[in-house]
Amino acid sequence: VEKPVRHFRSLRDLEPDDLRALIEHALRLKSGSEAVGRPLEGRTLAMIFRKRSTRTRVSFAAGISQLGGVGIGLSDEESHLGRGEALADTARVLSRYVDGILIRTFAQTEIEELAHHGSVPVINGLTDLLHPCQLLADLLTLREEFGPELEELRIAWIGDGNNMANSWLNAATMLGFELRLAVPEGYDPDPDILAGARAGGSVLLTRDPEEAADGAHAVCTDTWASMGKEAEAKERLQSFAGFQVAPETMEIARPDAIFLHCLPAHRGEEVAEEVIDGPRSRVFDEAENRLHAQKALLIRLLK
CA 47, CA 35: separation in Å to the nearest integer? Predict the structure, then answer.
């Protein structure tokens, strides 16, 4: 019997077996092999966006609608959060209206505060620390490409030690695959998450993108200046010179290796146009998989 999950603040809110089960459920939802119906009929999800969003906003809104529920989008400009209302008060109020709260924001502490003061499940749609919903989609993409034995994979992360790198570290710890991160000096992942992953899994941190890509099943990257880091963009372009995922990078990986990017992408910076638009790229399958993975998550949390 699967354990009930209260919140999805991080991948670590799931047990490893539950994470695997969720990915398999998402695969069945995508293939249509499982009759879905409208399991979230009458359920409502409040969706708070303190950062810009395309994929998270649309995939969650479409997903809950397809499951029979309703999503209500809120930005700072459209709610009293923009006028300084306490998150604790927002959590208490929304919990009396809706069945779940999604938030895409800056500080991980905001997720924790909503979860602490609210009485409905809280979903992390992205913070500066973690992006667990994207990892669900990425793991689903790997499952489609390489089969269920995810622990046998070698994954390369090349670029910033950002929320995506931190989430890959959590996934590696939980599922047991090998993770190699190539990150410039000064841009390492969160030290606590890195230490935990090194203690519990097969993790290599290197300054050499070729070492990370060697023999990898998937080569992954993200923009070099994430939201909130735009002012550092010029400096980061210099720091990340040599960390572009180029055709030569993919040649070092396995012959069947795929390329992943959570999007939006800056072609010609973190990834060469020939790679992201080439035959090894799975970025649009990966983007679609946000929908299917999150539908499985919504069923798990809100049904």
Answer: 26
State the residue for tokens 């035959």. Answer: 279
Name the token pair of 303: 């049904």
* 12-25: pLDDT as tens digits: 999 999 999 999 99
Q: What is the Cα–Cα distance from 23 to 219, expressed in whole angstroms?
A: 20
Q: Which residues are catalytic?
A: 104, 131, 134, 222, 262, 290
* Residue 252 main-chain phi, psi, to 5 deg: -75, -25
- Calpha distance 291→212 (Å, rounded): 29
Judge if pTM exceeds 0.90: yes
Is the separation of the CB atoms in 176 and 20 below 8 Å?
no
Residue for token digits 């008060």?
A: 89
Q: How far apart are CA 182 and CA 170, in angstroms?
A: 16
Cβ neighbours of residue 184 closer than 8 Å, sequence gap 6 or more = 207, 239, 240, 243
Per-residue pLDDT tens over the stretch 5-53: 599 999 999 999 999 999 999 999 999 999 899 999 999 999 999 999 9
DSSP, collapsed to helix, strand or coil, labels residue 261 as strand
Residue with tokens 């779940």: 100
Q: What is the DSSP string of 39-103?
A: TTTT-EEEEEESS--SHHHHHHHHHHHHTT-EEEEEETTTSGGGGT--HHHHHHHHHTT-SEEEE
Give the start-end residues of each E strand in the chain: 44-49, 70-75, 100-104, 122-126, 154-158, 178-182, 203-206, 218-221, 258-261
Distances in Å between the alpha carbon of 107 and those of 95, 214, 231, 285, 287? 21, 34, 18, 29, 24
Name the token pair of 105.
Answer: 């924001």
Q: Could you tell me the two tokens for 267? A: 């072609």
Mean pLDDT of the chain, nearest integer: 96
Please state, in angstroms and rounded to a whole number, the distance separating the CA atoms of residues 74 and 81. Answer: 9
